Structures are given as structure tokens and as C-alpha cells.
Structure prediction request, 530 residues.
Amino acid sequence: MSAISLGGGVFWVHECFPETDGHIHVSVYLVEAPEGAILMDSGSFHHRQRLSDRIADATAGRGVGAIILSHSDYPHSGNIPAFRGDWGDFEIIASCGDPDLQGLPYARRTKIGEVVDVLGRRFAVLDPPLADRNHTTWVYDEASRTLFVADGFGTLHASGACDIDWGRIPEDGRAEGVHEFHAQTLPWLRYADPNRVMDALYAMLERHHPAWIAPIHGPPIAEADVGRYMADLSDALARIAEPHRR
Amino acid sequence: MSEPASETMSVATGRPWRRNVWPGIHWIQECGGHRAGIARAVLESGADWYAPGNELHIPQNAYLLTGARTLLWDTLSPASGHILLPALEDLLGERPLDYLALSHPDVPHAGNTMQVLRRYPDCRLVAPATGETHALYHLDDAMKVGPEDEIDLGGLRVRFPEATFLDAAIHTWMSEETTRTLFTVDWMGFPHQSGECLRRTDEIDTAVDVGRLEEFHSRVMFWFQYVHPHKVTAATDTLAVRFAGYGFAPAHGLPIPGEDAAPYYERLNEVVRRVAASGRGGVL
Ligand SMILES: [Fe+2]
Ligand SMILES: [Fe+2]
Ligand SMILES: [Zn+2]
Ligand SMILES: [Zn+2]
Ligand SMILES: [Zn+2]
Ligand SMILES: [Zn+2]
Prediction:
């Protein structure tokens, strides 16, 4: 029930939703900052009560001090009004060009390329090569070296494998989970040149070396597993781009 | 074709922000505020369709189709319930709203769904059949439509062709077969300036050229920077054949009449080649 520690003050609050071919994570992460707890995304309304209870539990009742939002898509942003009701009008940090249009009139706007200070912790704001909406950002937490990502880097998982990190998912079917997730979530990948996407991702990982990749839609990927994940992702992108070749 | 500056204030003064665009198709527009950053980029590019001092708008469009039955396509952003609902009430009068069809559950398109359904409780919610996570968007009970489906509105007939260029799995385009109109959602958008709000492309004096289309697509379709351009242009060429003669009713541009539509396909192909070569234009 409780949040899973990734170290460095970062916790995975995992939730998932059953699809036909497996479960999809719709998680959030908590980051302990000097001036309060930062929530990465707000999760889906579907899990609202459970998330609210688990966050209260993990923060000893203090709740959320700020949310950094990957993008305004409802399963990521849907609990913001409720959580602000629970814990006060805390700050929302988002990257959209026009927060009003995204239903976030109160958001503090970030820009790709900058480093933002949120509750005393520093995050680099990055341009995501694997996203659905143009206003998506990924952030890299310098203190813990965690890279928070949505919607890319997901993996569909089997029921029962809901709370284990990517490296501990049984290898049988794991690569397929990476493929299925990206095929269904990022429809534009059918037009992509996989090399261009992979090059952009490798460049980012080199610059912001992650101890953990922390996806909203998949289990966290430990540093030791990043190489294997990237190999599976590269295969997945090639299959999506050339469905008839394989 | 100039418009008095005071007309941009008309939303606040309650003037309905809508018009009839083709027989049975009414257009409700949310222009949002001036996009200063994009206006600067446009001026730097030396484009001649935009005059300094004007406001630059990237709109949200909703369309109300009125046959014997009525259908609303998209709902504008959450910032514009005060535009959408009065416009609907005006247009419908005593008539019911029979269908609310969502192109995709993206905030600037679906932002007033609940308000519309509350105002018209007998309205049938229609959603794209594609995708697996309808329940995460309150769409599990919606009527699901795909390329096989047609809704006969009595005098108008709508179909739901696959969204060729899309940003999320739950997504559809729509066509109206009697007027031959293709509703392309996030594709075929472009900015306009003050004086051009609620005008069709055949009613403005400025050109909708490659650069103008690029200002929109290089931001919204940021992923053009990662594609094999020939894959995208092949898909566009297929659309050009399949929908030859259809006009466009985009969600973020001005409507384009069918007789003017043909060259737009090649303009979009050039946009893709440019973005694939030089990267995204920024964030919208
Ligand atoms: Fe998304
Ligand atoms: Fe969209
Ligand atoms: Zn998502
Ligand atoms: Zn699960
Ligand atoms: Zn849109
Ligand atoms: Zn306008």
C-alpha cells in the first residue's frame, strides 16, 4: 500500500489500470524537498481516493506542497483540483504555452532548457523525444539523478507485477510490454525514423545520467537496466515503424 | 478586410462568437489571447501575412451541425465555457442537442464536455473507438465510433475516418458528406490576426502559405522533427486523393473551402520536410 522508495528522497506511488493485454501504470512520484513534498503529476481521477490516502500516509499527513506536471492530459492532471482542495492552493509547475487553455490558469510556466527551483530542489526541464502533446516536459532531479518521464519509457505489465521495478519483471514478455505500450500510446511513431528518436534519447541520457528513469506509465528503470531497456525500446520503435518487415 | 478593434472585445460584451460557415455547419470560435512569442517569430521570419501591432491568434474551433438532428463537434477549452454555451443556446433555440462528438479527449478540445452534458442531459456523448483507456477519460459509457460508422443527422451525414495525423490513441477525424467537409482536428491549423477572426480563407486578404502553416505544425506536431518525411507525405498524398474536393474545417485554423483545398496538401508536405530538416518551432 505504501509508496516505494527509490532512494534520494524519491518515492514511487504506483497505480495501474487493466487493459485487454495487460496493465498500464498511471502512477505518480513523490519527491522530498527541503520545503515540502513535490508530487510528479497528479494521477487519474480513477485512483483519486487511493492516491490521496497514500500521499497523506507517505507525507505523515502533510500532503503535497507542489506539483510538477508532465502535461495536461487528464490521466496526469485530473486530480489537481481535488488535491488543491485537500492540501491548499499549492504551486503547479507546467510548461504549456497558454495555461488557461489547458485548464491550469494558476500554473507557473516553465520553459524547456531551464533549471527550476521547486520547494528548494532543482530540476532541469527537458524536451521529451517521446511525448504525445507538444507542451510535455520531462524533468531531471539533480539531487537524486532521477529522470521523470511521460508518456515514453512505459511498459505494459501482467497483473501481479504491479509494484516491481523494470529489471525484476520476468524477461518473458517484457520486451513485448515495451512495444505494446509505445505502439498504442504514441501513434506518431508509425511515421518515425527510429534512429532519430533513439539518438535524441541517448544524447539526453548522456547529458543527464539517470540513477533511475521514472516513467508515469511503467515501472521505474534502474541505472543497471537502462541499457537493456534502450535495446528493447529500439526494437520496439523499429517494429512500430516497419510493422510488415518483422 | 478589416474589423474594428472593438470587435475583439465582443466576447466580454456578450456578442455570440459564431457564424454559419457552410449549409448546416455553424462555427464557434475561441481565439484566446495575443500570442506575442509567435508573433515575434513571425515578424523575424519576414512573413507578409502578419502586420505588426495586430493580435495573433491560434484559435480553438467547435462546430455545430444542424440537420433534422444536431451534433456538436468538440467543446473549446475550459477557458471558454462562457463562449460555447451561449452560442449553443442561441443556435439551438428550443431544439435539443442530440450528439456531442469529441475528436479526442484533449483539454483544449474537450474542456467543456461536462458543462454541455449538464445543459443538455439527453445528449448522446460520442467518442472515438480507438484506444484502450476510455475509462481514464470518463468515456467508457460513450457511443464509440470508427471508420465503419455513419450518423445520419437528417439532411447531413457524418462519418468518422481514421485520424491520419494524431496526438493520442483515442482520436478520430470526422467528415460531413453532403457539404463534403473534412474535420481535421489538430492538422491543417494556422494562426490568424485581428480582423480575420471568424473568417474563412476565401474571405481574408492574406495568404495561407507554407510558412504560416509551419508556424502551427512545427509546434503542435513537434514530432515531425523525428520522422522519415516520405512516410508522412505518402499519408498526406493518400488523403489528397481520398478527400479530393472536400473542404477543411480544422480545430485550430480557419475553414478552407473545397475548391481551394487541393494545394494545401503539398504545402503540408513542404512543412514536414522543413521541420524534419530543421527541428521543432517551440511549444504552443
Ligand atoms: Fe499523454
Ligand atoms: Fe490534440
Ligand atoms: Zn499519459
Ligand atoms: Zn498492474
Ligand atoms: Zn488541438
Ligand atoms: Zn481570432
